[in-house]
Amino acid sequence: MEPLTSLPAWQALESHAAQVKPLHLRDLFAADPGRADRFSLEAEGLFLDYSKNRITEETLPLMLQLAEESELRGKIDAMFRGDRINITENRSVLHTALRAPRDRKIVVDGMDVVPPVHQVLDRMSEFANRVRSGEWLGFTGKKIRNVVNIGIGGSDLGPVMAFEALRHYSQRDLNIRFVSNVDGTDFAEATHDLQADETLFIVSSKTFTTLETMTNAKSARAWVLAQLGDERAVASHFVAVSTNAEKVTAFGIDTANMFGFWDWVGGRYSMDSAIGLSSMIAIGPDNFRALLAGFHAMDEHFRTAPFAENLPVLMALLTVWYNNFFGAQSIAVLPYDQYLKRFPAYLQQLTMESNGKYITMAGERVSWETSPIYWGEPGTNGQHSFYQLIHQGTKLILCDFIGFVNSLNPHGPHHDILTANLFAQAEALAFGKTADEVRADNNPEWLVPHKVFEGNRPSNMLLADRLTPEILGKLIALYEHNVFVQGIIWQVDSFDQWGVELGKVLAVRIQPELTTDAELKHDSSTNALIRRYRQRRNL
Ligand code: G6Q
């Protein structure tokens, strides 16, 4: 593969960007009444208005050419086929198989992976129904009222986000909680008001070796045993989600109470696997399957739609446009829906763990920017916090607005107010307020520069009719594939995460040093911090 910056489309885009930068969205819209119609797209119940981007008629054809020159089509096919595209871990990348319908065939290493996917889904459904109906009993014969998922990273962020997003559809007499941080506070606060005999722990860990999860799982077991006083209680109060049956057994969980998945499911792409068990218990198997159907519909759209009409491809190309040709460093994800409050946090891992890399698939240092920083908060809260910087700061930030035409909680004027704010923000960012307009409001001249909004701040607007399980699946898959396309353009392996390893190794070395007098051989800063901790820890 040619380095990205040597591709003809890249070079054409560099000179094109120089022409587009001086243009203002105000003028682009004024000159072209059809702009909003032309630069919008509807697919799978998601409407994307991308007209408030700093692009012209020539931009997308050039970006699409960049996608072609990056061999995107072949790479999409390779992913769906189960090729080992995660080259540094020598693995297939088949989260799309987790939501494939029963009659699909996806053969990897001579084996069709779809039947085992559905076997696990069926077992999960049966188990979820037993918990939801009160049939699954705790050790003392009480119904389960609390479900606590213990997991971290990909074994936490997707399930938490999905639970919060679909809380409206959840069984309200079940308390669903999540423990991820190794900070004992997380476990303590999640369990302080719970009774062990009504609590089910789901230990979710692909490897079943992750330090944080294993530490929390051991604390959970001790907590249960302290209350119930019998080792046999573990069988009624713990289930495991993992690919590692041996470690699950060693922990004391019967493999009959284990839900498996496979090494071709990456952690941050695993929420549709058994890692979603907590979500399924919360919302029920039917809603969970609707969620999967949504994912699958977006998979099919991504796999088959021409690139010019392909939502994930377009969003990815717009990201590359600002990231690589405008020097933009971040993308704000701004859902105007309280249920999506954890969506930005979930996207942080999906995007930045996937594409936050400076080495290409060929092992070379990149000479171009890779992943932007993703961040955000639900609207309208963000408006009273960081929007000042987006409107009048010195940084260019692409905003992904997400909204729903209908509220799941239609109370009086709330939803119209929310939606008015959503549309107003995108309008204000794009068009701003000129000095003349500020003067026309009778402002003194000295105040005018403070009240001017330059505008020309780009945004995407994603709208759906209503937040349903299916739409949520489509939205998540849209970002999954958006991230995939970005990674292809930047030529990185989007499916490994070597950058998380070093800190883990050093922590294992430092931990015993905190509580012994062992000689310290770190740098002077780390040595001094450890010494300070040793001296003061029992004060
Ligand atoms: C995600 C990463 C990482 C992983 C966690 C938890 O893509 O692989 O976030 O999900 O480290 O790992 P386990 O599920 O193995 O505990």
Kindly describe this structure:
- This protein is an alpha/beta fold and 539 residues long.
- 46% of the residues lie in helices and 11% in strands.
- It contains 22 helices and 13 strands.
- It has helices spanning 8-20, 25-30, 35-38, 59-69, 72-81, 114-133, 157-165, 184-191, 211-228, 233-237, 245-251, 277-283, 285-304, 311-325, 343-355, 387-392, 414-431, 435-440, 448-451, 469-490, 501-513, 524-536; strands at residues 40-43, 46-49, 107-108, 111-112, 146-150, 175-179, 199-204, 238-242, 258-260, 330-335, 373-375, 397-404, 459-464.
- The strands form 3 sheets. It has a 6-stranded mixed beta sheet with strand order 1-2-13-12-10-11, sandwiched between helices. The chain has a 5-stranded parallel beta sheet with strand order 6-5-7-8-9, with helices on both faces. It has a two-stranded antiparallel ribbon with strand order 3-4.
- The mean pLDDT is 98.
- Glucose-6-phosphate is lined by residues 152-155, 205-207, 210, 213, 266-268, 353, 497.
- The site of glucose-6-phosphate has 14 residues, from loops.
Give the strand content.
5-15%
Mean pLDDT: 98
Small-molecule binders here are: glucose-6-phosphate
Radius of gyration (CA) equals 25 Å
Runs in which pLDDT lies below 50 for 5 or more consecutive residues are none
Query: What is the number of strand segments?
Result: 13
Order of strands across the biggest sheet?
1-2-13-12-10-11
What is the first-to-last residue Cα distance? 59 Å
Overall spatial form? globular
Structural class: alpha/beta
Helix count, DSSP H or I runs of 4 or more residues: 22
Give the % helix. Answer: 40-55%
Largest sheet: 6 strands, mixed
